[in-house]
Design goal:
single chain; mainly beta
C-alpha cells in the first residue's frame, strides 16, 4: 500500500482547524463560592461568563478590557449590587440586582463608571420603596446600552450623567418615589420606548418620568432624543428644566405618550434648536388640572408641530 500523501493545501487547512480549536471560546462559571480572581483571570476575549447563585457582597469589576466577553447572569442575584469601574467591552444579560426587603449600602444599586462599550440587558433592578437611591447610574462613560429591563421601587429608576453615546430603550420603571430616568450633563443620548408607571411620590416631590438638565460651568447638553416613551400615573412626563444655565440644544421630544395627574406633559426651559412633534398628552379623569401641554420658555429656533392634548376630567364612571 502506498503511503498517503497530504497536499500542502490540506495540511494548511488542518493547521488552521487545530489553531481554531486551541483558541475556542470558553464558557466559564462563577458562583458565590468560586475563587473570583482566578475565574476572572481565566477569561479571554469572546468567552462567556455564566454567573449563578446569590451574591451577598457587591460584585466589583475594575480596570480591564474584557474583549467582548458575554455575561449570562440569568441565574444570578446580586443582593448588594454591581460596580463596573474602568471596564470595557462587556455585555450582561439577565440578573437580579438589589433587593426589595432591606436597604443596601450603595446609593446606586448598579454603577457603571469610567467605562465603555457596556451593555446591560434584561435585568431586574430592585429597590425597597424607601425613596432612596437609584437602580442604575451611568457616569463618565461612553457607548453604554441599557435595554429591556425592569426597575422597581427606587427613588429614581436610572440615571445617565456626564456620559456620551448612550442608548436607554424598552425599560419599565415602576414604583419610583422621584423620577424614572434622569439625563444630566450628557451628549448624544437616545431614550426610547421606555415606560413609567405606578409612581409613589415622596412628600414634596414632583416626580418626572424623564427629566433632563445641564450643569453650571459645563457645556449644554446636546443631541438628546426622547422618543416614543410613555408616562402613566401620578407624575410629570417629559421635562428639561434649568433656567440658570439653559436646558440644552438639539433636543428631540417626539412620539411620546402621557396620561398623568400633573400639568407638565412636555416642558423645556431655554431649549434651543430643538424639535417637539407628535406627542399625545392627556390628564387622568380624576386630575385636579386641565390637559398637559407642550410648554417652551425662552427657547430659540424650535419646531413644535402635530402635538395633541386632551382633557378627560369627569369622564370616569360615565356609562
Amino acid at each position: 500500500m502506498k503511503p498517503i500523501r497530504l497536499r500542502p493545501l490540506m495540511l494548511a487547512g488542518m493547521a488552521l482547524m487545530a489553531a481554531a480549536t486551541a483558541t475556542a471560546q470558553q464558557v466559564i462559571t462563577l458562583t458565590p463560592t468560586s475563587n473570583q480572581r482566578t475565574i476572572l483571570a481565566s477569561l479571554r476575549a469572546g468567552d462567556t461568563l455564566r454567573i449563578a447563585g446569590t451574591f451577598v457582597n457587591p460584585l466589583v469589576l475594575s480596570n480591564r478590557d474584557f474583549g467582548n466577553v458575554q455575561v449570562d447572569a440569568r441565574s444570578a442575584v446580586f443582593q448588594s449590587g454591581l460596580v463596573l469601574n474602568n471596564v470595557h467591552n462587556l455585555a450582561f444579560s439577565g440578573g437580579t440586582y438589589g433587593r426589595s426587603d432591606v436597604d443596601i449600602r450603595a446609593w446606586h444599586t448598579v454603577q457603571v463608571q469610567f467605562s465603555s462599550n457596556i451593555s446591560l440587558a434584561e435585568g431586574l433592578f430592585l429597590g425597597n420603596s424607601d425613596s432612596r437611591g437609584s437602580g442604575l447610574l451611568v457616569v463618565q462613560s461612553n457607548q453604554v446600552t441599557v435595554r429591556d429591563s425592569q426597575f422597581r421601587g427606587h427613588g429614581t429608576g436610572l440615571g445617565v450623567r456626564s456620559s456620551s453615546n448612550v442608548l436607554v430603550t424598552r425599560n419599565a420603571i415602576m414604583g419610583s418615589a422621584a423620577d424614572g430616568i434622569n439625563v444630566v450633563d450628557s451628549q448624544r443620548v437616545i431614550v426610547s420606548s421606555n415606560s413609567c408607571s405606578a409612581f409613589t411620590p415622596s412628600p414634596g416631590a414632583h416626580p418626572d418620568c424623564i427629566q433632563l438638565w445641564s450643569l453650571n460651568g459645563r457645556p449644554l447638553q446636546s443631541d438628546i432624543a426622547i422618543l416614543n416613551n410613555s408616562a402613566i400615573g401620578n407624575m410629570q412626563a417629559f421635562v428639561s428644566f434649568d433656567p440658570r444655565t439653559g436646558s440644552g440644544e438639539r433636543l428631540i421630544f417626539a412620539g411620546n405618550y402621557a396620561a398623568i395627574s400633573y400639568t407638565h406633559g412636555v416642558s423645556c426651559t431655554r431649549c434651543n434648536d430643538s424639535i417637539f412633534v407628535d406627542n399625545v398628552l392627556t390628564n387622568l379623569p380624576d386630575s385636579r388640572w386641565g390637559a398637559p401641554s407642550v410648554r417652551l420658555t425662552e427657547g430659540l429656533r424650535n419646531l413644535v408641530a402635530n402635538n395633541q392634548t386632551f382633557d378627560v376630567r369627569g369622564l370616569a364612571g360615565q356609562p
